[in-house]
Task: inverse folding
């Protein structure tokens, strides 16, 4: 692909990624709870989920799902239900704010839990799939091998996501150390849960 096409893809991707959504909200919440360093698995897992979705789209899996009305219906409802589950969990499940955690203290949330949570959120979010499906045909050259082009585009998208979530997590970590208390974190969790339920409701209305 041309440099101009790649640059256009990069700018459009950046605008799409930095817009607040479930991944950013989940990352900020975990950074506020655990601190920046403990939130790194969440950031990495989101990029991994986006990479899986990106390569699936590039090599036709997503096109197959979109071509099948019932598969696309099930996929979108899976995203709705997972967002709703996360939202309800934020509202009703109590979590401890690790403000006094030292470097030698094990985190209260395992790396596996953080990774699976963020990975599932990324791969079940139809927003990313729709973005890939809409933009890939515009920039991938049909007369050139698809593999190298997909690698460049997916790597670019994931790199921007990593930079965006790292920035949000770092800012949340700074604010956490200065302003956050257990009661404020509880209020933030409830607000975050309500926002995730709002995202779920918005997505549910778009399911046909």
Result:
């Amino acid at each position: 692909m041309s440099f101009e096409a790649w640059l256009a893809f990069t700018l459009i991707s950046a605008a799409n990624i930095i817009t607040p959504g479930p991944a950013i909200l989940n990352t900020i919440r975990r950074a506020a709870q655990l601190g920046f360093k403990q939130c790194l698995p969440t950031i990495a897992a989101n990029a991994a989920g986006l990479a899986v979705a990106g390569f699936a789209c590039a090599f036709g899996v997503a096109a197959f799902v979109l071509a099948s009305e019932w598969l696309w219906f099930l996929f979108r409802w899976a995203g709705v239900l997972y967002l709703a589950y996360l939202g309800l969990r934020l509202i009703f499940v109590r979590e401890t704010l690790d403000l006094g955690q030292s470097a030698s203290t094990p985190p209260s949330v395992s790396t596996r839990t953080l990774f699976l949570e963020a990975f599932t959120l990324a791969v079940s979010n139809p927003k990313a799939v729709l973005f890939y499906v809409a933009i890939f045909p515009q920039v991938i050259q049909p007369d050139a091998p698809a593999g190298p082009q997909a690698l460049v585009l997916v790597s670019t998208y994931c790199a921007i996501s990593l930079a965006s979530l790292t920035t949000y997590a770092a800012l949340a970590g700074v604010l956490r150390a200065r302003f956050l208390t257990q009661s404020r974190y509880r209020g933030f969790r409830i607000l975050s849960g309500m926002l995730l339920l709002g995202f779920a409701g918005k997505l549910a209305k778009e399911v046909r």
